[in-house]
Write a structure and sequence with these properties.
By secondary structure, the protein is α+β, with helices and mostly antiparallel strands. The protein has helices at residues 2-16, 18-46, 49-53, 73-84, 173-177, and strands at residues 56-64, 68-71, 91-96, 102-106, 110-122, 129-143, 146-159, 181-185, 189-196, 199-204, 207-213, 218-221, 226-232, 238-245, 248-255.
């Protein structure tokens, strides 16, 4: 009799307060998936290939907005070994965008994790640089007491915001006017600079960019590692613009008009 009453009470509690049970389950699931996600990306960043392989099922599929579909674990591992983790190739390091990750239960299957991340690239002889930002969606399957990824989507790859450590200052229109005009560069050709609100717009062929003042003569681009420095001649007139990429001179454009 007591057992029957307890059973009925439990059923009533589940019916009246399903969100409590679900919240507890989801909390445990989220912790599990986040721990797996951390271990997975550690193996990615360190090129621990043997550990990296253990996170996937054999018929794994990887969808990449720029690379297309990679079907099968063997093809995925070949791509990693001959690309990402090949010693002579640039090294890539991934970091999650704080606060972007969400975990969702997948009924009778496992879970989905989504979020945003950024990628840093280190090429031989150069410092690490921020390269891309993208979104990710991973599908985790819970089967035979094991968690494995069955599908991975990597998409919306964009140049990562650059110069986030730089502060934009305000310059007068009189100062900005000194930099407008036509420039000629050996590699780029004709460069046209005009005012755009309190910044400058640079056009060269199909390239168009808005650059922002960091100092009176130094400007930066928020979507690439480029800076633009304006140089005066002995008469204090703007004579050229020096373009740097990751701190190295990439182009010098002479002001012609």
């Amino acid at each position: 009799m007591l057992k029957t009453m307890l059973t009925k009470a439990l059923l009533l509690f589940i019916i009246l307060f399903p969100s409590v049970i679900l919240a507890q389950t989801d909390s445990s699931l989220e912790k599990t998936i986040l721990e797996l996600d951390t271990k997975f990306w550690k193996s990615y960043n360190t090129c621990d290939i043997s550990t990296f392989k253990t996170f996937f099922v054999e018929d794994f599929e990887f969808y990449h907005d720029k690379g297309g579909l990679t079907a099968g674990l063997s093809n995925m591992m070949s791509s990693v070994e001959n690309g990402l983790c090949k010693p002579e190739n640039p090294r890539v390091r991934r970091e999650v965008v704080t606060g972007s990750v969400e975990v969702f239960p997948l009924h009778n299957y496992g879970a989905i994790i989504t979020g945003e991340h950024v990628f840093y690239v280190t090429e031989k002889g150069t410092k690490e640089r921020l390269a891309e930002i993208a979104k990710f969606t991973h599908v985790w399957q819970h089967k035979n007491e094991q968690w494995k990824m069955t599908r991975v989507l990597s998409y919306d790859h964009q140049p990562a915001p650059q110069h986030t450590d730089k502060k934009e200052i305000s310059l007068s229109h009189k100062i900005l006017d000194q930099y407008t005009g036509t420039y000629q560069a050996p590699q780029t050709g004709t460069v046209i600079i005009t005012k755009k609100n309190k910044s400058l717009e640079i056009k060269a062929g199909k390239m168009q960019a808005i650059v922002y003042p960091q100092t009176e003569t130094l400007f930066f681009h928020k979507q690439s590692p480029l800076t633009f420095e304006f140089v005066r001649d002995n008469n204090e007139i703007i004579s050229k613009m020096i373009v740097r990429e990751n701190g190295k001179i990439a182009e010098e454009a002479k002001k012609v008009n």
